[in-house]
Amino acid sequence: MKALLRDRQAWLFSAKTFAASIAALYVGLAGNLSRPYWAMATVYIVSQPLLGPTRAKGVYRVLGTLLAVAATLVMLPNLVETPLLLSAAMALWLSACLFLALLNRGPRGYAFLLAGYTTAFIGFPAVTAPEGIFDTVVARSEEIILGTVMAVLFASLVFPASVRPMLTARIGNWMQDAAAWCRQVLQRGPSQAPRNRLAADLVQFEALIAFVRHDDPRHAGAAPTLEHLRARMLLLLPVLSSIADRLDAVQRDGSALSPDIAALLDDVAAWVDQGDQARNEDDVAALRARIAAHHPVVDQDIEHLLLASLLLRLEELLDLWQDCRALEQALVQGTATPVLRALPGAARHPATAESSNRADTVQSDPPVRSRTRSSLLQILGWSRRDAATAVPPEQAEAALLGHTGQLRQRSSLLQRLTGSPRNTADAPAPASNARHIDFGMAAFSALSAGFALMAYCVLWTGIGWEGGGNGAMMAAVTAAFFAAQDDPAPSMLTFLTWAVVASVVAGIYLFGIFPAIHDFPMLVLVLAAVFLPIGALLHRPKSMLIALPLVVNLTALLSLQNTYNANIQSFVNAAVAMVLGIGFAVVLTRLFRSVGAEWSARRLVRQGWRTLAEAAEGHGAQDRQQFASRMLDLLGLLAPRLALTPEGSDLASVDMLNEVRVGLNILQLRSARHGLPQLSREAVDAILAEVAAHYRQQVAHKRPLPGPDALRDRLDASLTRVGKVPAGTHRDEALLGLIGLRYSVFAKTVQQPKDITQKPSALAPLPSGR
């Protein structure tokens, strides 16, 4: 309570919102709107502490209202004579809108949410007078739009609070946590970084970035920069995890890094610790030169493969970290998007049948050592570009075409992840567009809400309760509002509790205070005594679930109009219907909908395994384009649920970042297999089929399973077979993919693969994943 009293921003927000609601109420009263209190309630529903979310909710509130109006005009006049059919139609409409809302996690989903329950708000109270439905929907639309306009105007003109400073501060905190993890990894210390929290934060950043587009025009232009930054922050997670696994492989074997490599790692850690100074080009160039000097040739020697893979990940870390720091500074200083090192690059040409046949003819030739530059970024369609160059990509390609006679098609990461055409250099990074979507859970949640509404309507019509329409409204609102939660019942119960409190407060105002009020200024003063503290509570996320049912239900029950016409019977009828409607939704949700965090975590893990199986089975380019961002998005959704699972759960053994690397190795093998000889390609295909079968079995058993011995033996044999293929890009990528897959799928197994070079000396264990 003391913290709330000292929170100036909370009281400023409350004062702004109260002023906007009073302005909306005054205009509604002056304009003789039939229910001006709807405009007042809309202000509190739309208003958010920050400008961007308020504007976004305002836009989509209006769109949702228009959709609800259209649906009401179609359903009510045609079905009002058959109450059960009307109730079923309303319930199906609510379910359909809620399904679309759950599939759209951004601001657009709010339009569908509003379209679903606003239809109940408009339609059910009008069933007693269906002949005036057109006038009713027009009046409700006017009141909602009036409240929305007032909320947006006051948020925009009176001490506007931009999303950008808050988002910039959170990004700074994220970078500090990532830097701490990076330092722990490079200094070979125990990693205590909250990796899952880093992924979960990036999911939240996506929603905030969407609000930036509706923010103050001075800041809205930062959205492309934020998209580029978030895309690189996402890629940092598997890169850092891969480096940690490679270094852990060396430590597990008891081997020591060479002094030069250890010094290089320490210097990279020191460079990361420089913070804003990490953008110094001379320092970065020196580190890149040292990395290049240590690059081994890629041959059958597993230690060489391990070192080559480690150094490639270090190169990617330098590029990504430098980009992140440059983009962060651009946000803080309000400058344009800087030149970046990790930019959309040339797409890799698939191997032709001719090259495969040519490789078949020389399969038994002795292997030749070669260097590899394949990287995690290249698999995702990213390549490094020197920051100092001033030559546009198109001119560089034209020059390359003149020298080689080959045109390298430039395709952006947006193309690769979404299949959409390339736009401009400032096009949002596509990592935010390829999301994990759970159609089954969305349908289950949506149908549960519709069922709750239908069940209440059956009770309402069955007993012939004339004033039960308020309950139908609140059942729809309550079921829809909390549908995205794993277990909505506790939140709905809190909503019910404070709705009861709102009923008591409304009764005190209606029958104890309002009879003594005779003018508008006095009405404002007595309302301020309650609405200002509620508004301050609404500003704080922890108390929003208290404030929202208080303010919305209190406003509805007060029913402020031009004349005082409170009736105790009507008030009790409305209050009881409201409480019963919410209570009905709570009970049905508890019985049929609540699943819990662990249940949802298991479902997400199984869906991740299913995605890996699909990638291994191979469905063309679509799988390669969508995989990385979808899996990282799934990891962000999974992280907060894993934190709520009980100790000792088998979910604790699931490392979804490791599964991301499994998928990247699968994608690398699917890309490299085209350039391998036929026998080697068949061996790789057999491995991919067994990997798919392994993950299908985990899905069927609903728990993690150890990798089968047959798959491990086949992987070891394939390392030997592919190692005999003549050197080349496809051979090198296949070797790295096979080794990464061998130690990703068998991350818990310490047994070494068979020595493909037949050397007697022990080799370092390989990294757990790509």
Automatic annotation (TrEMBL):
UniProt keywords, alphabetically: Cell membrane, Membrane, Transmembrane, Transmembrane helix
Annotated compartments: Cell membrane
GO molecular function: transmembrane transporter activity
TM region(s), chain numbering: 12-29, 59-78, 84-103, 110-129, 144-163, 439-461, 496-514, 520-538, 545-564, 570-592
Membrane topology: Multi-pass membrane protein
Domain of life: Bacteria
Gene Ontology terms: cellular component: plasma membrane
Sequence segments annotated as region (Disordered): 346-372
Record carries keyword Cell membrane: yes
Pfam families per record: FUSC (PF04632)
Keyword Iron-sulfur: no
Skewed-composition ranges (Polar residues): 353-364
Protein name as it appears in the record: FUSC family protein
Organism: Xanthomonas hortorum pv. vitians
